[in-house]
Design brief:
The chain is an alpha/beta fold. The protein contains twelve helices and twelve strands. It has a ten-stranded mixed beta sheet with strand order 2-1-3-12-11-4-5-10-8-9, with helices on both faces. The protein has a two-stranded antiparallel sheet with strand order 6-7. α1 packs across α10. The structure holds 3-isopropylmalic acid (IPM) and magnesium ion.
Length: 352
């Protein structure tokens, strides 16, 4: 099992260290870990946020475990050299179009949600975010108009096959859960969304067992704080999924708790090749202080074991250890506590 670990910037190395301790403790046979530089550190050491040697490692690996990228010192670089291009480049180069972002309330954290405990307690949803298209990857520039004014633009587009393949991921995920799928778009304004909606309706014919509905993204943002328990699986485009998944994280208490999987069509001998990362960023303000919550990173490791290595039992063990640590009162600063990064890692290891 070839695992590429790209820790990245900011708190990335600190949280990755904890995930690797958990991986080591599982003592799985035949694990090989490779490392590579991504993000700001990639740019500093190799002149590029996704150096060719790192990309080659990712291509050869069965799965990628990814920390975080983002470095304020790189904010003024041209866009192609900014740290974020590492993750966007990997998603694109590896064809990782399906992003799974589960959000579930952990027992004991209800009062830490930004929502009322009785509202937050019902959260158990999965955001299926398209990851290879949309306004993220369309033509973009800042240009000067004939009259001298500057204009920024980013082209939003989805081809029908791009919508169809993520639709199938959404419907299949709903079949495995409680059988409800909500497709989120902005079809009242955007043609991209109208096509999205038309294709979703076409694909829904293949899944008569799934209760399928549409929701406009502004309404979805509202419903997510009004009554998040109504959602099971949400399928949506790249930009809306980015925004709604951050929002969902606050509903469960902290962005330090949400893991994600980015999957494509490549099958290895073990499972689906994928990239696994916390949904949070590099948190440069707390980097190096030992305060970062490593749980989203550890939960990303669990998702890797499940989706890329077919090790459901090990994934469930890791998730149970995390849930137990939280139930026992382990709290990082993000949850109003004082437990540091390695203390949280210790707590998970002890329960594992
Ligand atoms: C995420 C992040 C990324 C995104 C950034 C770092 C490019 O916000 O994974 O949600 O926008 O996809
Ligand atoms: Mg985001």
């Amino acid at each position: 099992m070839k695992i590429a670990c790209f820790a990245g910037d900011g708190i990335g190395p600190e949280i990755m260290a904890e995930a690797r301790r958990v991986l080591a403790a599982l003592d799985l046979p035949g694990v090989t870990v490779w490392e590579g530089d991504v993000g700001g550190i990639g740019w500093r050491r190799h002149g590029h946020p996704l150096p060719p040697e790192t990309l080659a490692i990712a291509q050869a690996a069965d799965a990628v475990l990814f920390g975080a990228v983002g470095d304020p010192a790189c904010d003024d670089l041209e866009r192609a050299l900014r740290p974020e291009q590492a993750i966007l480049g990997l998603r694109s180069a590896l064809g990782l179009f399906a992003n799974l972002r589960p959000a579930k309330m952990f027992a004991g954290l209800e009062s830490l949600s930004a929502l009322r405990p009785e509202v937050a307690g019902a959260i158990d949803l999965l955001i299926v975010r398209e990851l290879n298209g949309d306004v993220y990857f369309g033509e973009k520039a800042i240009r000067t108009l004939p009259d001298g004014r500057r204009e920024g633009y980013d082209i939003m587009s989805y081809a029908e096959d791009e919508v169809r393949r993520i639709a199938h991921v959404g419907f299949r995920a709903a079949q495995k859960r409680s059988g409800r799928l909500t497709s989120v778009d902005k079809a009242n304004v955007l043609e991209t969304s109208q096509l999205w909606r038309d294709v979703m309706v076409e694909v829904s014919a293949d899944y008569p067992d799934v209760a399928f509905s549409h929701m406009l993204v502004d309404n979805a943002a509202m419903q997510l704080v009004r009554n998040p328990g109504q959602f099971d699986v949400i399928v949506t485009g790249n930009l809306f999924g980015d925004i709604l998944s951050d929002q969902a994280s606050m509903c469960v208490g902290s962005i330090g708790l949400l893991a994600s999987a980015a999957l494509g069509e490549t099958q290895t001998q073990f499972g689906t090749k994928g990239l696994y990362e916390p949904i949070h960023g590099s948190a440069p303000d707390i980097a190096g202080t030992g305060k970062a919550n490593p749980l989203a990173m550890i939960l990303s490791l669990a998702m890797m074991l499940r989706h890329s290595f077919g090790r459901e039992d090990d994934a469930a063990r890791v998730e149970a250890a995390v849930a137990q640590a939280l139930a026992d009162g382990v709290r990082g600063a993000d949850l109003g506590g004082t437990d540091g990064t390695s203390a949280i890692g210790d707590a998970v290891l002890a329960r594992l």
